[in-house]
């Protein structure tokens, strides 16, 4: 913390939510608002349990539940799917903890940390790019939660909400109304800020874990065991339809699974800035991310295998499963789904874009206003269409987020040796200002990091013909390639451009 106290007046200033921040001297007024100033020591109240609860609240959601289904559908056995998910989250934990270090040490959010490697002006692009990805996920999660509400009400009302799709929207009026109701629920927490989100996560985490284990117990009892699926061999095994093809499926799947939380690996300082210590942020993330992800993937696999015995078919979608369970079970199960979706959405998909949009014009857009902008963009992205393209989207945006992570890590650890002058992050003419606010080493390294994945991306989204075998293979490892290429390019360009 010693570095961040340089230039401090010793005074503190509350933001719009009442959280206390340190006041700094000699900084430029148009580069900050109270939300972006370093978190004061008195406001650093999150211990490792709080951070673990935050992660459990984010991990337990319907898209996480469905991840195993994508992998098993691609030919993996349940244990191969669970191990792939565990490995991916162990990998993404590394940059998560490393980047989180800066948040805990200096109390600054993600867009302010970006200024070290991109400059005050240059940082706006990667911050907003991360924010737009979160807006897409915000919309998808809101659609999922709204669908749960729709199923509850439609079941209780004997199908009265069913109807023809509305023009342009492509969903019926009942579905749209439930989507809007769940969307509006987010506005309450956006209005009340980060501490209200922490409160929700802390109380929801044990409830969500209990609901997951209760679902597992229900499946085991009703199926008399977990059924045939857990004993079904991998399709890649000898004599199976996809014999010998495991690695060609594993690597893109691993990249996609890494991409699932690669978003949070960038903006994790938005949360670790409230951690009491580095030990708390490390332990909280190590306990809260990889193991709950693997546990939830196992629950999804086991419960789905049991549905083969109970209902005669595998049911991966927990909303459809809850509908088939009937009675009070549907209300309990779908209430849990709504809570799970809300906790994930608020922490993973509101805080980052709110900070990113706030960083565009700090004096005009505070964190609360940035949250409202996020909700509005998520609404107009037609998430009920976007949700059908999740895996391709995961790899596509990991090709963008990997390079940003590589640049941040190279800058903070290899170039700066974890030492930042916090006041200069808020100055137009400080040591991080580069050329008129642009650190061209960071900007050019980002472009260089994206380029190897560009042919694969264009082919993947249908904007070009098939990529050559070389570029198709590179795109398979999009996040990893982007991270290392951009990180190395940044270090080289920093030596050349920033003498």
TrEMBL record:
Keywords: Membrane, Transmembrane, Transmembrane helix. Its main location: membrane. It is found in: Membrane. Pfam families: Transp_cyt_pur. It is a multi-pass membrane protein. The keyword Glycosyltransferase does not apply. The chain crosses the membrane at residues 53-73, 85-108, 128-153, 173-190, 202-221, 249-268, 289-310, 330-348, 369-387, 393-415, 436-454, 474-493. The keyword Transmembrane helix applies. Belongs to the purine-cytosine permease (2.A.39) family. This is Nucleobase:cation symporter-1, NCS1 family. It comes from Pseudovibrio ascidiaceicola. The lineage of its organism: Bacteria, Pseudomonadati, Pseudomonadota, Alphaproteobacteria, Hyphomicrobiales.
